[in-house]
From TrEMBL:
Pfam families: Ephrin_rec_like. InterPro entries: C-type_lectin-like (IPR001304), C-type_lectin-like/link_sf (IPR016186), CTDL_fold (IPR016187), Furin_repeat (IPR006212), Growth_fac_rcpt_cys_sf (IPR009030), Tyr-kin_ephrin_A/B_rcpt-like (IPR011641). The gene is LOC106161550. This is Signal peptide, CUB and EGF-like domain-containing protein 1. Residues 225-334 form the C-type lectin domain. PROSITE patterns: C_TYPE_LECTIN_2 (PS50041).
Amino acid sequence: MKGSLVCGSCPQGQYNANTDSDETCDWCANGVRQGACVACQAGQYQDQYGSSACLPCPSGSYQNESGSAECLPCPPGQFQSETGSQTCIPCAVGEYQNQNGSTSCLPCPVGQFQSSSGQATCSLCQAGHYQDTIGQTTCSSCPAGQYQNSTGQSTCIQCPVGHYQSSVGRAACTACPIGQYQSAAGAVSCVSCSSGSTTAATGSTSASDCVVSDPNCGPGYTLQYAGKNYYFGDPKQGRSQEAAQTCCQNMGMILVAINDAQEWNFVDSNVASTSYNGYWCDAECINSVCIWKNSPNSVFYNPGVGGGAIDGAGNEPCLVMKWAGGIDYQDLACTSTSYNAGFVCE
């Protein structure tokens, strides 16, 4: 079938290359139309013999050649929303299409991205990254203090207690090293134990995991009250008040100075639950009057119970708080090692 053939007076959709006799006219082939059997244009087709017109390619298809009996479906990664098209359109970045003959593309779902156009699939976000919005061209790095150990995720996970992450885009958090702890989730660093104390293992979660590393000061444990750390050093024969004060100073603390009933109840209840017979405190007693040496207000809080003989003689200015079914006091020389006392730091 050639475009130079002339149908003469043959009916539409037929032709005769030799005579005007309609008895010898033939049907035009698929892909051509009417009397002259003209080839369908690109973007059109005709799949019937003897047709007088061509049809536009439907949406989702195309035809880039003339004289065609069919249109071609848009391949994956492309689409066409119009009819009569000669080409398909590549999916935009952030989109994909995995089907043939599509009239539109789809946005990449959360946890995925696509940075190139004309793609049949999206890519999963790598570990350490996330994407919480559809139709994106990149993924975001997990912020410091968070991690993501799986691909294709829409969120990151906070570092658990005892762990931290100071960098972005990480697939894991790091356990706090020995000598540090972290009691909050989502941390970017760990907290160092007070000077002179350390932890027994990595991944510690509380200040109470810090124990005194000086054999003269430990063992013991740390508790928190009213925003402050308190260290309770176990009793030890031969420990003087001066030695106890040094232990506290090594941890950046002082011997406890109790300023109100609430603080007294906190210290008292924790001392009562241990094997303490007594503990060194920060008191200085002179002429039967005691003060807290390092407390900001230097007012001695007397709980009003028990009460030993406190003469505050010049050679016995230091005080042991005694526990024996009730609070009692014992003033001693600051260098005395005769009392099996513990100590409390704050």
